[in-house]
């Protein structure tokens, strides 16, 4: 009897240990029937930690929140308990019956799957999720706002859009927010300003105390007049609304409410620049500028060189207009200018300077005046045009040859010469013959015979040398990679090079080449990518910061070229920079 009792106890302990060690992995939904305007929560729970969790595709739903991960690991009455949950918030796309397929995870080397769940989506309901209090409270206490510095600017006048998320102190927001729709600034030249960290600040919204974070800052320059629309920023967030319930430690529990917030679209009324008083040499500069023309020297000898610099500094649309051209006498040889930009962009717009530096080489001795140059701009603060005119500069060439005057009246005229006729009228007719033997020489033992005989023997050492060179070239991994990168750059930029000189066609081809390169090398579709995401991808692939910055600047130049005049020199510089940058990226990608 005692033996039977002991066996029963052992069996009970064994069964209990098996039950305790059993792995559980299951999917739970907040409801199986919901309105098309409601949100569905699905939790994937497990009682042991695992790896390689793969959720279902959620093809018939939009993921508006998640995955949120929660872990509980505690001991009660000497018994340890573990629970890990992956949570998603889903929004149905349309009415109907849909099946959420299996999720999988690996635990202790075994793969576990959940059971499929069928969800019925009905018409819209009056009280979504049956939690109107929490939803209403979240709607009343969370606001996404687009603050525009000036809604009635002039054409090409800088404005700033700052996106702020205001949250009342009464509720919270989880960190798993995401941007659902990123605003596109059509008909604007735009540049995002980098935000280093999301700092929580104190402020007011409609007269009430709020906390807020600045999500985005963008500087815009309108490129046409009239009413221009700024598309909204849309975000999916999870609000944490306090409830009356408490956990086992007495702490208040919160209700997590998935919510879509939008800053709404904004309309900017752009005023055209006034026609009254517009200077004839006005080229689109808007802002507040200073202008000067300088030369590196004013005295030199012939065939020596000097530099003439045309420079504009100040605050305004520095990247969106063309500098005036330098005009000099024809006796001075002038080369295409070198364009430089030293511009920084902050919330007040572009500031800094741009310049064109010409190299001038005089050919003859003398004094040559460089005529004065004028630069005109529109000042939006004073609402008037201003013109700045440089002083005339005289270049004194002290030593060198004198210029020849082709209109000299004292030029000697050569005397006429008497023409003597030749009495032998038919001298051009050949009257003597020069016959040669046309019988062919025998091929055997001829020069050609011996050359063809010895040629294979002479080709053997040549083939050995060529083979060794090829082996050395194949072994040069780094060199081959460099040559391959250079060929790749020429391949993608071939179309752009063919259209050099045609501004719009060239920059469209250049931008397409850059996007095709990214698509080929990173296996991504770049149509929905912005510059920030491209920059992030390249940095993750260990491309150097300065190379990534050059690549982004070329993309910005392609966008900028649609709205500003571009010279042949600028196109050539952008092409060379693109070829160099693609080559460097291809060498550094890992």
Automatic annotation (TrEMBL):
Keyword set includes Lipid biosynthesis: no
InterPro entries: BatD (IPR025738)
Signal peptide span: 1-20
TM stretches of this protein: 448-466
One Pfam family per UniProt: BatD
Key words of the record: Membrane, Signal, Transmembrane, Transmembrane helix
Protein's name in the database: Protein BatD
Organism lineage: Bacteria, Pseudomonadati, Bacteroidota, Flavobacteriia, Flavobacteriales
């Amino acid at each position: 009897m005692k033996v039977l009792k002991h066996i029963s106890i052992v069996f009970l302990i064994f069964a209990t240990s098996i039950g305790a060690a059993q792995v559980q992995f299951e999917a739970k939904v907040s409801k199986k029937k919901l309105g098309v305007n409601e949100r569905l929560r699905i939790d994937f729970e497990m009682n042991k930690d695992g790896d390689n969790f793969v959720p279902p595709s959620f093809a018939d739903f939009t993921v508006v929140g998640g995955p949120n991960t929660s872990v509980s690991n505690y001991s009660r009455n000497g018994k340890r308990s573990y629970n890990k949950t992956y949570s998603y918030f889903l929004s149905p796309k349309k009415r109907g019956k849909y099946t959420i397929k299996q999720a999988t995870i690996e635990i202790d080397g075994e793969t576990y799957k959940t059971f499929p769940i069928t969800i019925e989506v009905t018409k819209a309901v009056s009280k979504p999720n049956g939690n109107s209090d929490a939803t209403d409270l979240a709607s009343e206490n969370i606001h996404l706002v687009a603050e525009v510095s000036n809604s009635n600017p002039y054409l090409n006048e800088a404005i700033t859009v700052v996106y702020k998320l205001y949250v009342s102190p009464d509720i919270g927001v989880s960190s798993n927010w995401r941007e659902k729709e990123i605003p596109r600034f059509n008909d604007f030249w735009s540049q995002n300003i980098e935000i280093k960290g999301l700092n929580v600040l104190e402020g007011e919204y409609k007269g009430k105390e709020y906390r807020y974070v600045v999500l985005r800052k963008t500087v815009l320059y309108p490129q046409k007049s009239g009413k221009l629309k700024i598309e909204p920023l849309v975000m999916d967030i999870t609000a944490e609304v306090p409830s009356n319930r408490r956990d086992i430690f007495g702490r208040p529990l919160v209700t997590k409410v998935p919510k879509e917030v939008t800053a709404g679209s904004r309309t900017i009324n752009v005023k055209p620049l006034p026609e009254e008083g517009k200077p004839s040499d006005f080229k689109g500069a808007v802002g507040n500028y200073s202008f000067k023309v300088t030369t590196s020297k004013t005295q030199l000898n012939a065939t020596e060189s000097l530099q003439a610099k045309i420079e504009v500094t100040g605050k305004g649309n520095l990247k969106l207009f063309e500098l005036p051209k330098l005009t000099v006498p024809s006796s001075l040889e002038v080369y295409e200018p070198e364009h430089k930009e030293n511009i920084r962009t902050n919330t007040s717009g572009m500031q800094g300077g741009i310049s064109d530096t010409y190299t001038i080489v005089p050919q003859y001795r003398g004094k040559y005046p460089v005529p004065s140059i004028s630069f005109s701009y529109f000042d939006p603060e004073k609402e008037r045009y201003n013109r700045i005119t440089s002083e005339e500069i005289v270049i004194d060439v002290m030593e060198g040859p004198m210029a020849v005057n082709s209109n000299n009246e004292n030029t000697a005229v050569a005397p006429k010469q008497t023409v003597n006729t030749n009495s032998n009228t038919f001298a051009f007719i050949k009257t003597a013959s020069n016959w040669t033997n046309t019988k062919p020489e025998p091929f055997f033992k001829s020069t050609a015979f011996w050359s063809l005989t010895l040629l294979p023997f002479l080709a053997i050492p040549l083939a050995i040398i060529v083979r060794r060179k090829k082996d050395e070239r194949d072994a040069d991994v780094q060199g081959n990679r460099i040559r391959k990168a250079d060929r790749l750059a020429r391949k993608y930029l071939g179309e752009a090079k063919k259209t050099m000189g045609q501004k719009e066609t060239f920059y469209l081809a250049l931008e397409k080449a850059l996007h095709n390169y990214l698509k080929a090398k990173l296996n991504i579709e770049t149509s929905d990518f912005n510059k920030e995401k491209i920059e992030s991808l390249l940095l993750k692939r260990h491309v150097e910061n300065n190379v990534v910055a050059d690549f982004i600047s070329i993309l910005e130049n392609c966008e900028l070229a649609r709205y500003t005049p571009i010279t042949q020199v600028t196109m050539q510089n952008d092409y060379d920079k693109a070829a160099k940058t693609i080559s460097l990226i291809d060498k550094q990608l890992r």
